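User: Continuing from earlier, I have the next pair ready.

Assistant: Great, send them over.

User: Here they are, in order.

Assistant: Folding the first of the pair now:
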Amino acid sequence: MVDVWLPYGKTEICARIPTRNFLGTIRPKEEPGVADTRDEVERALNEPIGTKRLNEIARVGDKAAVVVDDATRATRSQLMVPPILDELNKAGMKDEDVTVIFGCGTHRPVTPQEMKTLVGAETLERVKTISHDCRAKDVVYLGKTETLGTRVYVNKVFAEADVKILTGDVGLHFFAGYGGGRKSVLPAISGVETIQHNHAAILHAQARTGILDDNPVHKDMVEAARLAKPDFILNIVTNSKGELVRAFAGDLEKAHAAGTGLVDQMYKVPIERRAKIVVVSPGGHPFDIDLYQAYKGVDCALEATKRGGVIIWAAECPEGHGNQVFYEWMTRLKDLKQMETEVKKRFKIGGHKAYYLLKALQKVKIILVSTLPDYYAANVFKLKTAKAMNDALNTAFNIAGKDAKVWVMPHGNATLPVVKAPKSPTTPSDE
């Protein structure tokens, strides 16, 4: 037997797998955080990719807008904003001429305490701050995209600024491929019509984690961001501990592309073949605090699972399902076709997880090991359940066969398996 320990809430859970069935563990190739975060951010600002330095772009008397992530993201904006303000000061700009915009997308406004956590007390004392309202009457129309024909409306303060700066973190994203870059315009500071029209394209086959080529959501976002004419971006890549690994600054697309390259090195993990059974943990607390947050582990595990196989999902979920729209879509909409219609008509954040879960269940069986009551897990979210990991493994082998091979993913939320291309046309597919 091979014992593999997986994070589960704030503890661990053990999967005991017969040696003959065990293919191995799939883990991210993370890099350590830098010793001095300020030095790394300043290095990026001094070595911009594809643009002049920020203090060469800004001028005395300019008005600047700096977009940062809202409270739904773990982005370490407090590392980025003070050095940006210092760069603007070097150009002769005054702090009173700078506005920090919390890019809330369709989310609620940021609270005063969240503002302090997100950007730091120093920033709040230096500059004005606002939360973007996607339903505001004064969003500014910039034009229409060619990719999806999206009518682009953005925040008025940003649209009218002389110097426009985007900040964010680059990581894997469900349907945009990666976070960061253009997402700081769409959805972060866009109007609700713009967001809904763009996000309806999640139904496209290429709107997937880690995919940019031919991804209409991504291409549309880039077009929208270009219409907003950002002057400069500062993006960071962190490891699973939230430590800053590297910062990237400069042009909207070039700096973001450099960030995605590092994300690929760290989090895309090549594997030789898929398995009939994949055991996945999102990575423990806080990644499995509820079912909604924990789902990303399943989405990544699908890439390592054969069609018709089994995913064992170890997620504690002490706070239940975690999102009301997620819950409502799973109870109200009975099949994938109904969900696709709903996505096209009225996309809502939260509903996309219901769509992805139901789509996953068409490909594989999912067994949940969790504290979530069986009533919700089975009746609402259509999952099989097991009280213990060994019970889940027994069920999985009964479904997939006693000879089924097994992958284990201890940090599923931050691991994207990529099946290596066959060496020759005669190599059999494991589909």
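And the other member of the pair:
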Amino acid sequence: MDLDLSGKQALVCGSTQGIGKASAIELALLGASVTLVARDENKLKAVLNELSRAKGQAHDYLVADFNFPDKLKSAISQYVAKQTVHILVNNTGGPPAGPALAASTEEFVAAFSSHLLCNQILVQAIAHGMKAAGFGRIINIISTSVKMPIKGLGVSNTIRGAVANWSKTLSVELAPFGITVNNVLPGASMTGRLESIIQDRAVKQNKSTEEVTKDMVSEIPAGRISSPEEVAAVVAFLATPAAGYINGINVPVDGGRTGSL
């Protein structure tokens, strides 16, 4: 298989921790030059030093806060004026937990903005370069909730579903240009986001975090929670030339937990 990403430029969002960071590391190991995107410059600098340069890559970072779409648009516009992006990994931290009925309209608007609207801003900025290169990979890290809503994540379930359908629409529009658009759906992966969910459930259910974690694992056929690196491996594969005919799909990485095809 052709898994070589030498000469390719990847833009990885949310790349200072969890799945985003693991994805950036994997893409660099395959030869891509990586631009890290997050809001904390000190963390960006730290991760930058962890990326492989074995194939002569030049890595860098872009400071951007997805709570401010206009600033993101300005930053990415300046970036693509100098650099073609071949691989875009959209990855944004999930909205706070809670039932949909209890969520304010402001919570829905904020989540829609930081997820779907910011993804749209990035794709509009980089699509021209991908078309010119005849190669593009847009990979959205979402959630298994796009197949089966997850209890207690009302806002997230709603917004993730919107992102999934946006992605499918784009996959049809961009396919003629050699650009694929796919979604990776992590199940339980031990990230800061999952730790926060576990802690929230522990408080609401009056249980210890260990008990909540055990309950969660009991629902996973694989019998364990994944590492971010296991999800990142799927992200990296979808970015390669070998995955060029995979387009417009949702790929669960959940140990078999999701009860649907």
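Worth noting for the second one:
Residues 105-133 form the longest helix (29 residues). The mean pLDDT is 95.
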